Amino acid sequence: MLRLFTIPNVIAPFPSKTIPSSSTPTHCSLIRAKMSSDSLPPPPDNRIVLGCGTVTVDFLAAVAAYPNPDDKIGSTGFKVQGGGNVGNALTCAARLGLNPRLISKVADDTQGRSILEELKADGVDPSFLVVSDEGNSPFTYVIVDNQTKTRTCIHTPGYPPMIPDDLSQESLVSALDDARVVYFDGRLPETALVVAQEAARKNIPILIDAERKREGLDNLLELADYAICSAKFPQAWTEAPSIPSALVSMLLRLPNLKFVIVTLGKDGCVMLERNVNGDVVSEEIDVDSLLETLRQRKDDSIGIPTCLSSPVAKLTAQGIGAVSGRLFAGTAEKIPPSELVDTTGAGDAFIGAALYAICADMPPEKMLPFAAQVAAANCRALGARTGLPHRTDPCLASFLS
């Protein structure tokens, strides 16, 4: 039995999150002294976002070093909290001031109830989340390696899986009502496609998290307005020889796509934005050479996130084709090793911030450093949600004002 839960080229730097020392005031602490939450402008007028995907419980264990086979080791830290790409991204969006709604499925078990409670506490609306009387809620074991600063995830899917019949047409229409953007993490493929098709019919923009090749992902990408990809996805999906040429290939293969971003961890991100303004461009630029030129202009003395952009041009990729657009190279914050705790959920935090940026109509030059700033904040605590900043974080002030 199922039921719904009722309740011109430019470097653009921005302030970064730092951990204050006892003796030297940091940029963030100086901002905090001058600013209160009352001085923040209100969130965007249209701030309802809908997410569809998997939510989980994460069992996180930090270890001094990843164990060898047959080893028995102790953890240096432990935490149990909500997880899952869509759950993390929507939690981030809620803390930034959006009103997220969630379509997903859990079981009526201890883990499912804890997922619901945590989402509600963070301001995510679970009214469209389906609860099964039987089965199990999804959960993930996460091993955080303090030595290599990496994490290993072992995921157990929920059962029974979500199917389109779990969501009534009335609930679907209600979930999409007044939504500014709809976000999919690439899971729950059959249900996600039904939701995406209805969103497209209503002309609601669609953002896809292209983490890896999955069943049904191609169908979602064909409807997408925006895509945010992991480092390996663009080349794996297009078989292009480089990331820039893969992004050109994606825009050529997906004519609805307005922009595609690939996140590169400590190496920042790259974004290709389609020229939709009808600007006539004659200059042709090799996209790989252009990215190299942008990166050469990066100022390595700047530790906070920045963005370098190209003018609108005809960007060519050898053997693939050309697209009219702009290329952006975003940098990541240089987090001191002593402050880097856990990268779990950094990509989800980036997406949560991107959802906010879309609702706020941020230009790419502001969106990319903002998303990088939010992701960096999340890397300073154990788990995918512990370090997610709230709207009142003083280091976000310049983006939200």
Automatic annotation (TrEMBL):
Pfam families: PfkB (PF00294)
Any coiled-coil regions, as ranges: none
SUPFAM superfamilies: Ribokinase-like (SSF53613)
Signal peptide region: none
Gene3D superfamilies: 3.40.1190.20
Location of the Carbohydrate kinase PfkB domain: 56-277, 329-390
Keyword terms, alphabetized: Kinase, Transferase
Any one GO molecular function term: kinase activity
Family to which this protein belongs: Belongs to the carbohydrate kinase PfkB family.
Protein name per Swiss-Prot or TrEMBL: Ribokinase-like
Species of provenance: Tripterygium wilfordii
